[in-house]
Amino acid sequence: MSDRDREGGLDAPTRHPLNQDDPAFWDESDLNKELERVYDICHGCRRCVSLCNAFPTLFDLVDESETLEVDGVAVADYRKVVDQCYLCDLCYLTKCPYVPPHEWNLDFPHVMLRAKAVKFNKSDTKFRDRLITSTDLIGKVASKPLINTLVNGGNKNDTIRSLLGKTVGIHNEANLPEYVSKTARKTHAAHIFDPSIRQSPDHKGDKQSVTLFTTCYCNYNEPSLADSIIKILQHNEVTVELPMREHCCGMPKLELGDLVSVKKLKEQNIPILYESVQRGNVIMATVPSCVFMFKQELPLMYPEDEQVKAVAAAFHDPFEYLFKLHKQGKLKTDFNTSLGNVSYHVACHQRVQNIGPRTRQILELIEGTEVKSIERCSGHDGTYGVKKETLQFANKIAAPIVRQIKQQEPDYYGSDCPIAGKHIEYNLDTDQQAMHPIDLLLLAYGL
User: Fold this and answer.
1) Which residue among 180, 237, 290, 369 is the one 20 to 30 A from 13 at the CA level?
2) Which CATH number fits domain 332-445: 2.60.40, 3.40.50, 1.10.101, 3.90.320?
3) With DSSP H G I counted as helix, E B as strand and the rest as coil, what are the percentages for the chain, rounded to 5?
């Protein structure tokens, strides 16, 4: 038996292409056979029971069946497991001993994605879910001056929230983000690179350039994050550009199973980002899910697309890039403010990039700063944490993080994922606000 054929093999895990263009991908009968195979393996293992609600849902279905095996679970109930998965990828990365190249070839997140895609293709998706994953559309509408005031006011109004709960299925107590009228791209319009009116910057010498993909969230909800990373990069003598046009990365639609929309967004974003790669730029985004989408999910969907591969190779998490600067001796360490005791939540979609603990390593360059990492899922996902039927589970998943922060009593706490940070803050229920590590670094620099 080769090392790759046994549990605990030492070969590095690998991901196979999604293969969504194969007709068998959409065959529901074939899908159900694969779900039964995967569920049976997971039932016999149960290592992932503590990660999210998908696995407890599966195991409860099995334990409550007449046979106490997967063959006793109704096929119609398979989707109950699928509905609880929000593709954090932690089972694949941290728990499962049967991932490829193991002969059982178990990729739980991508089987769930396939099931979501088949479900969506049957038009078996709620209007609410189609709406809340349309982040570009919501952001553009909610950022308009008059509408912006109405949206933000409505989010805080008990009557409006009750109406949203009854008609759309948004939980009354869900922590909804505010929208700004002056977006990040409006604020930093001078950084937008338009090849028709601007010349490519001079790359002579060792001057580096970054194209900042602002993301829907940072553009429409928290533009201060874009402000912070731009200031930090400029302080480190890095030229910052914004792409000429920008659309949602596609992750919300991917999690919905709407692969048609993912393809459309890919066709809108990739050519523009590829143009910046051709000019020698690194690409960056401050939301880990967006980085992960370009780094892994799009290449697995379009493995033959050379532009997708080039953009993936150029895409960086902010602290991944800053750590590279540090290793090159180019990161300035003229920090003037200690951060003291920091409780740092490692976002799932940053962990699964396999870049190492770069955020903690950069923050610990600051004198008098000690960082304690928390490697647990926050449970929010962007949409899972606002739905009427899943907020309770999102809060339960976040509970171990909240306990650790309360025990630590840190000077600061936060997450690489700004949405996760807000969800933790909501569950922590104190006056202390979450701070993104980028904002903590800006504070340390005193910029």
Assistant:
1) 290
2) 3.40.50
3) 50, 10, 40
Predicted local distance difference test score (pLDDT) of residue 4: 47
Phi, psi torsion values for 351, nearest 5 degrees: -55, -45
Nearest 5°: the CA angle 397, 355, 250 is: 65
Q: In the numeric block, which tokens belong to residue 16? A: 């196979």
Please compute, for residue 172, the number of CA atoms within 13 A of its CA located in the half-sphere on the CB side. Answer: 7
Provide the mean pLDDT of the chain: 92
Hey, which residues does 239 pair with through a beta bridge? 209
Q: pLDDT category, 11, cuts 50, 70, 90? A: confident
The pTM of the full predicted model, rounded to 2 decimals, is: 0.92
* Residues counted in the chain: 447
Cα dihedral 206, 207, 213, 219 in deg (nearest 10): 150
Closest C-alpha to 112, from 96, 128, 101: 96
Distances (CA, A) of 185 to 223, 289, 296, 356, 391: 8, 19, 25, 30, 31
Do the Cβ atoms of 198 and 239 come closer than 8 Å?
no
Domain formed by 184-316, architecture: 3-Layer(aba) Sandwich (3.40)
In 369-423, DSSP assigns E strands to: 369-374, 412-415
Q: Which of 80, 49, 88, 48 is nearest to 382 (CA)?
A: 88
Domain ranges of the chain: 13-121, 127-167, 184-316, 332-445
> Tokens in use for 349?
């979609």
Q: What is the pLDDT of residues 100-132, one digit of tens each?
A: 999 999 999 999 999 999 999 998 889 999 999
User: What is the phi-psi region of residue 369: left when phi exceeds 0, alpha when psi lies from -120 to 50, beta otherwise?
Assistant: beta
In a 3-state reduction of DSSP, which class is residue 221?
Answer: coil
Single-letter amino acid, residue 75 = V
Name 342's bridge partners.
371, 412
The DSSP letter of residue 205 is: T
Check pLDDT > 70 for residue 205.
no
377/51 Cα distance (integer angstroms):
7
Question: Do 86 and 381 touch, CB atoms closer than 8 A?
Answer: yes
* pLDDT of 198 strictly over 80: no
CA angle (291 as vertex; 285, 293 as ends), nearest 5:
140
Identify the three-state secondary structure at position 341: strand
Domain 332-445 in the same topology as domain 184-316: yes
44 burial level (CB within 10 Å; 0-12, 13-18, 19+): exposed
Q: Which residue is associated with the tokens 């699928």? A: 82
Pairing assessment for the beta strands 315-316 and 282-284 based on DSSP bridges: parallel
CA dihedral 182, 184, 187, 190 (to 10 degrees): -150
